[in-house]
Every structure is written in structure tokens, then in C-alpha cells.
Write a structure and sequence with these properties.
mainly beta, Methylamine Dehydrogenase, Chain H, 4-stranded antiparallel β-sheet, globular, WD40_repeat_dom_sf, Coronin
Length: 211
């Protein structure tokens, strides 16, 4: 009887991707060299946002998806933060609204014009201050509009109600820097990973750690 391996071979093992044509790529973007662990980009059905290298503050590009090819060095930016931008996330309910967080301890909400940026944007729709140290992560609630979560280097997660522009709850159960956070499909549970080597499943409404 011949020996058979316990694993199943992938049917994709001999499938190779094809590099897109240059005119279908985004070229010439000065992507940030920040050493933080975030993706530094976010995309929705209309726009691609990318955190860029900049001096004297933080900025990111917002490019319509159909505008491929080389991006000019003087292309308009969103540049209102006083420190490096660490994370950006598109609002899942409104395609022109994006949240950003920064080393300047602020979270900001931006509304991008329908056709994209024509000039630099420096004025945010909302500026949110509640963290005592830099803010590394933002995450929109998946089922409730205008509810945003932010995680800072003060080891706290703040839940913001953007209708009033204030935090409505603070989750203070972490002993070190929060590295990642993610919701389940209906937003009833929040999972976080932390530098203390623990993964926590939290109930956002009560702030209680379930596991």
C-alpha cells in the first residue's frame, strides 16, 4: 500500500499572476517610510488612499480608481495633521468620508469632493482629541453609521460618536500597545491583539473582556 501525504495539494500551485500593464498601475507615489505596522493604504469602490512621505506633518493621497498611470509630484494631498499619519480607513456607509489618525494624538474625519481633490485639503470636517499619546489605529463600526473606534499608545480604545464629536466610551483593558483591532460581521464583538502577547475578544458596549 503506497504512502499518501496527509495534506491536499493546492489546485493553484502552478497558477501564476500576470503583472498589470504600466498604464493600469499607480506610479510615482512617495509611499511613507514610517516603521509602524499598518497597511498605510485604504480603498473603496471609488478612491484609493495612500499615506505618503512628507516633511513637517502627515499627509495622504486620495486618487480616483480610474485615474491610473503616473501621479505627479504636486498632486493634491490631504495634509492637516501635525505628525505622521499612522492609519486611514474609509467610512463603510459614505464613500467620500475617510478617517485618519496620527502621531499628533488626533483623529480626523475628512470629506473628499465627489470628483477627487483639486487642491490640498487642510481643513477636516471633525478633529477628535481624547488620547494622551499618538493614535495608531482607527476602525469604523461595521453596522452603525458615525461610530468610530480609535486605539492609542496610551493603551486605550475610544469609541467616538461623530454626531456629537465626542467619545462615548473608553475600553481600558490593555496593558501595552494595541497592535490590531477588528470587528465581527455585526459589530457585537471586537478582537484586539496587543504587545503583551494576548489576543482579547471584547464586548464593545460594556467594555468587558469575554476571552
Amino acid at each position: 500500500m503506497s504512502w499518501r501525504p496527509q495534506y491536499r495539494s493546492s489546485k493553484f500551485r502552478n497558477v501564476y499572476g500576470k503583472v498589470a500593464n504600466r498604464e493600469h498601475c499607480f506610479d510615482g507615489i512617495p509611499i511613507t517610510k514610517n516603521v509602524h505596522d499598518n497597511h498605510f493604504c485604504a480603498v473603496n469602490a471609488r478612491f484609493l488612499a495612500i499615506v505618503t512621505e512628507s516633511a513637517g506633518g502627515g499627509s495622504f493621497l486620495v486618487i480616483p480608481l480610474e485615474q491610473t498611470g503616473r501621479i505627479e509630484p504636486n498632486y493634491p494631498k490631504v495634509c492637516g495633521h501635525q505628525g505622521n499619519v499612522l492609519d486611514i480607513k474609509w467610512n463603510p456607509f459614505i464613500e467620500t468620508v475617510i478617517a485618519s489618525c496620527s502621531e499628533d494624538t488626533s483623529v480626523r474625519i475628512w470629506e473628499i469632493p465627489e470628483g477627487g481633490l483639486k487642491r490640498n485639503m487642510t481643513e477636516a470636517v471633525l478633529e477628535l482629541y481624547g488620547h494622551s499619546r499618538r493614535v495608531g489605529l482607527v476602525e469604523w463600526h461595521p453596522t452603525t453609521n458615525n461610530i468610530l473606534f480609535s486605539a492609542g499608545y496610551d493603551y486605550k480604545v475610544l469609541i467616538w460618536n461623530l454626531d456629537i464629536g465626542e467619545p462615548v466610551k473608553m475600553i481600558d483593558c490593555h496593558a501595552d500597545v494595541i497592535l490590531c483591532m477588528s470587528f465581527n460581521a455585526d459589530g457585537s464583538l471586537l478582537a484586539t491583539t496587543c504587545k503583551d502577547k494576548r489576543l482579547r475578544v471584547v464586548e464593545p458596549r460594556s467594555g468587558r473582556v469575554l476571552q
